[in-house]
Amino acid sequence: MSKPKVVILGAGPAGISAAWRLTKLGYPVTVLERDGAVGGMGRTIKVGDYSVDFGPHTFHIRATPESKKILKTITPFFGEDPLTLVRGTRVLLRGKEYVYPLEMLQVLFGVSPLLSARILFDYSMATLKSFFAPAKKEDSFEEWGVRNLGRTLYDLCFGVYSERVWGLPTSQISSKQAQRVAKLNLKNIILRTLGIKADPATYFTKYFYPRKGISLLYEGMAREVAAGGNKVLLNSPAVRVERSGDKVSRVAYKTATGEQSMDCDILLSTLPLPALVNMTSPALPQAVIDHAAKLRYRSLKLIYIALKRPQLTDYHWVYLLDEQFRVNRMSEQKNVSPDMVPKDRTILCIELSLWKDEPLWKASDEEIYRLALNDLMKMGYGVTESEVDSYYVTDIPTAYPVYELNFEDHLIPVLEGVHEMRNVMTLGRHGLFLNNSMDDNVGLGFQIADHIEKKGADGRVWVSEMLEFMKLRFAGK
Ligand SMILES: Cc1cc2nc3c(=O)[nH]c(=O)nc-3n(C[C@H](O)[C@H](O)[C@H](O)COP(=O)(O)OP(=O)(O)OC[C@H]3O[C@@H](n4cnc5c(N)ncnc54)[C@H](O)[C@@H]3O)c2cc1C
Question: Is 446 left (phi over 0), alpha (psi -120 to 50) or beta?
Answer without folding.
Answer: alpha
